[in-house]
Amino acid sequence: MKVKIDEIRNMSAIEREKKLSDLRNELFKLHSSNAMGGTLTDPTKIRQIKRAVARILTVQNELKEI
Questions:
Q1: Cα torsion 8, 47, 26, 53: sign
Q2: Phi-psi bin for 29: left (phi > 0), alpha (psi -120 to 50), beta?
Q3: 24 membership: H or E segment, kind and range
Q4: What is residue 1's predicted lDDT score, i.e. its pLDDT?
Q5: C-alpha dihedral over 34, 31, 23, 62, to 10 degrees?
Q6: Signal peptide location in the record (predicted)?
Q7: Which residues of the chain have pLDDT under 50?
Q8: Distance (Å, rounded) from C-alpha 52 to C-alpha 55?
Q9: What pLDDT, on a 0 to 100 scale, did the predictor assign at position 51?
Q10: pLDDT at 66
Q11: Which pLDDT score, from 0 to 100, does residue 34 have?
């Protein structure tokens, strides 16, 4: 689920919003299943998704300043 910063910068604003929405939904599902006593097959996936969300938000904030 690694998303590189160059890939994000090359996306359109609509694509970034879609990707951000998809990542947040996936993160919600992982948190929900973990909270209900389920086990995660890949515990590092939550960290990767959180970082990808942060990267997208960073690029969006950079573009708003310009």
A1: negative
A2: alpha
A3: helix 13-35
A4: 63
A5: -140
A6: none
A7: none
A8: 5
A9: 96
A10: 63
A11: 87
